[in-house]
Amino acid sequence: MSTLKYLRLEKPYQLMLSNDPASRINVDAEARSFEVYFKDRTELTGKTFGTRTDKNGVHLYEQTKVGRKWRYCTHLFVAKAAIENHIIGGQIGEMLVEENIVTQEVVDTALQDQQEERSRLLGEYLVTQKIVDASELESALARQKNMPNLKLGEILIGEDLVSEAQLTEALKAQKKKRSGALGEILVDRGVIHKEEIQQALAKKLGIPFINLREFIVEPEVIRMLTAAIAFKHKVVPLYVYEGKIVVAIENPMDWQITDALSFNINKYVEPVMASPEDINWALQFYYSSEDIESSMEDMEEEFENDEEDEDYDPTIFSAVETQQVTDNIVVKVVNKIIEDGHRQKVSDIHIEPGMGKQKVLVRFRKDGVMSVYYKFPAKYRSALVSRIKVMAHLDISNKSKPQDGKINFRHFAPVDVELRVATIPTSGGLEDVVIRILTSGKCMPVNAIGLSSRNLDNLLAGVSKPYGLFLVCGPTGSGKSTTLHSILNYLNSSERKIWTAEDPVEITQAGLRQVEVNEKIGMTFAGAMRAFLRADPDIIMIGEMRDSETAGTAIEASLTGHLVLSTLHTNSAAETIIRLLDMDMDPFNFADAMIGVLSQRLTKTLCTSCKKPYVPEKDELEFLATEYVRESIEDAARAAPNKEEIEAQLKEWEKGFSQKGEFTLYKAPGCMDCLDTGYRGRMGVHELLMSTPEIKKMILRQAPAAEIHSAAVRSGMRTRKQDGIEKILVGYTDYTQIRTI
Q1: Chain center to CA of 721
Q2: Most buried in the list 28, 183, 424, 652, measured by CB within 10 Å?
Q3: Which residue(s) pair with 546 in the sheet?
């Protein structure tokens, strides 16, 4: 409830006039006006037939239609935590004007004075209504001068956010450390949240809160702080004001940082607040390219005597570069490439040296798409590759064979991430490097991976069985491991023993016994399966069925009282069944063991920062309906659905995807958050084939994949394309992305 503002149930319903004194709702014969003022300085107005107040908030019954006996309304709930004030039945100013006691001009003047008075309470207003331009910033700084000069401890005690005892303990710890901000110590001890400190500072001291993603900083201001100082202290220079430099910082009361900045730039520093997420974003936005460029300039100086001539000899050049592998500049650049990749949430980093004088191309894969990160001069190709091989404990001298290894990046930089490195020899005696970023991410809840409500219900019903085989299929990078871990998270409990064999272990969960496959020492998926069966399992998860031995062992385990989950690299749910039969699996055992197959792909989602609704034309809806119905056509001779089928589908969609018969779709023009692409993030698009008596008979007679697919559609399966079109109607993505996958 603390995060909810208001909730409106759009479907109108009838409210009957009642004189029953026991009724909890006071229903009025005539609708009365209501006004709700929220803490974020927004308003909500309308007319209501009655009100009801409970511990969570206010219930209003908005007028939509009036009859002689019935009142048609929609239910509006406004959360108590979001309300600053609310008025039912008109404001006093309106009533005074209606009674000719005062003029409207007098009321307007009074309301303006009232609004100015309210604006002095800056706390939540400054945090929610962030400053986005220089004029707003100047006004806020001028207003701040009149605020009292208090210490952080006094503010937090005054706001009842910490106790005297907690503050005393934190101050003692600060004295012992002789460094460290008081706020950080309180946060580390779990006494208070960072957001509470920021709101308290805004309220008591009037310190402005900045929206760094909207605030435009001039290049000459950015140049006043070097990248090294800005990243070290996590500050962003914003503006020069009355001879002082205004900087955004998470905790503006950290005098050690402001003093250090004043000393470095020889200017008085005026601190303002920004969220840590916005500060990290701004540092990358304003300094990343500059940081790489400055590092490159340093590298140019290091190698200025090693100019290439026209006759390029890679063997001689390699010897010169290898001497520079431990150079501090090369180390910094490699670390920065990896840190930026991790910060931008990319999945893979590709380092591609070109031949001759061609540059070294570094590309990132994010949301499944490659993009250029930076082009390094050709002379650094061996230095960069050799540095990465040193970090991964690979053989620098061996350039003729592929090698693979791992890097624990915590040993080289303050970033908790593990890397999987693969080097591949290319023409001209060069090597490509591909780095997979293995973020030890948290497991997603099973209801957050994009499954439709129908698919979610069927999946949970299937995997809740005590034994059987459930498979997730799709190409590499389609989110199969994430889905399996989400299912395991749902099943994970102290009553079950769960073993997993993975290559590699990317997601960890408490309660799971996870084994990493290593074929070099003989720990294969099949070997792990056999070991698990001797270790009293309830549930077994196998990262991938790569061979018939693993598949056969998994089916046997599922028939002997164990629930087995695994993945397979196939294109569709029906093809998964045929693939296993082609691996010489016994059709009788497989038909008995199979619970279901989930086929999935990942599609890009519209950027939530810039996506906008629009009402689609009828032609667009008919096109989507045609594509949707086409998936269910079994008659091979018929290429497209008829008009009746399309109209029937549109009527069915009206029940679940429209408001009062009107559909709303979304498009995203692009913004800074999505780098003007219109897309940010990905979600799953699925087809779930559940085992039915008809499909079991087809497995026994080894029917073709097309027949199995048709039988699954008849039993209610939605294809991936149909699932994707439904996600378009909900507003998650658009047809361009669904067509792509």
Answers
A1: 23
A2: 183
A3: none
Task: Check pLDDT > 80 for residue 182.
Answer: no
Place of tokens 């993975």: 502
Q: Give the CA angle between residues 724, 728, 729 to the nearest 5°.
A: 120
* Identity of the residue numbered 115: Q
Beta bridge partners of 26: 51
pLDDT band of 472, cuts 50, 70, 90: very high
Any idea of the CA torsion for 68, 70, 74, 76, to the nearest 10 degrees?
100
The pTM assigned to this predicted structure is 0.57
DSSP 80-114: GGGEEEEEES--HHHHHHHTTSS-HHHHHHHHHHH
| Residue 40: strand, helix, or coil | coil
Q: How many angstroms separate the CA atoms of 39 and 128, rounded? A: 9
The contacts of residue 244 (CB under 8 Å, 6+ apart) are: 267, 268, 269, 270
As beta bridge partners, residue 349 has 364, 435
Residues 6+ apart with CB under 8 A from 443: 485, 486, 488, 489, 507, 509
pLDDT tens figures, 312-363: 343 333 433 444 433 567 787 888 888 888 888 888 999 999 888 888 899 9
Angle (CA) 665 671 677, round 5°: 70
Q: How far apart are CA 389 and CA 407, in angstroms?
A: 9
Query: Which amino acid, residue 12?
Result: P
Write down the mean pLDDT value for the chain.
78
C-alpha dihedral sign at 252, 253, 257, 262: positive
Give the chain's length: 741
Q: Rounded to a whole number, what is the largest CA-CA distance in the chain?
A: 100
Query: What span, in angstroms and rounded, lies between the C-alpha atoms of 28 and 16?
Result: 10
Q: How far apart are the first and last CA of the chain?
A: 38
pLDDT bin (cut points 50, 70, 90) of residue 127 is very low
Provide DSSP, 57-77.
EEEEEEEEEE-SSEEEEEEEE
Q: Which residues pair with 409 in a beta bridge?
A: none
d(C-alpha 178, C-alpha 185), whole Å: 12
Q: What pLDDT does residue 309 have?
A: 38
The label of the residue with tokens 């003047």 reads 109
Strands 658-659 vs 512-516: parallel, antiparallel or unpaired: unpaired
The β-bridge relationship of strands 539-542 and 498-502 is: parallel
Per-position DSSP letters for 528-556, written without gaps between them: HHHHHHTS--SEEEES---SHHHHHHHHH
What is the tens place of the pLDDT at every residue in 677-691?
888 888 899 999 998
Domains of the chain and CATH, by start? 6-112 (no CATH), 124-282 (3.30.300.160), 303-438 (3.30.450.90), 446-602 (3.40.50.300), 604-682+718-740 (no CATH)
Q: In this structure, are residues 132 and 214 in contact, taking their beta carbons and an 8 Å threshold?
A: yes
Tell me the two tokens of residue 379: 């002379």
CA dihedral 48, 52, 57, 59 (to 10 degrees): -40
Distance, CA of 471 to CA of 491 (rounded, Å) = 15
